[in-house]
Amino acid sequence: MxxxxxxxxxxxxxxxxxxxxxxxxxEIMAVVDNIKKESYTVEPG
Length: 45
Hints:
- The protein is mainly beta.
- Helix content is 0%, strand content 13%.
- It has no helices and two strands.
- It has strands at residues 11-13, 32-34.
- The chain is globular.
- The two termini are 20 Å apart.
- The mean pLDDT is 80.
């Protein structure tokens, strides 16, 4: 389920449900949509 902090960024997940096992250490990719006209940079962490 989407977190309550989702409104902190102009990004929204194109498919909002996704669960990742706590022990998973591989690469993760997500398709997101920027709902504003300004660019938004995602920082590590």
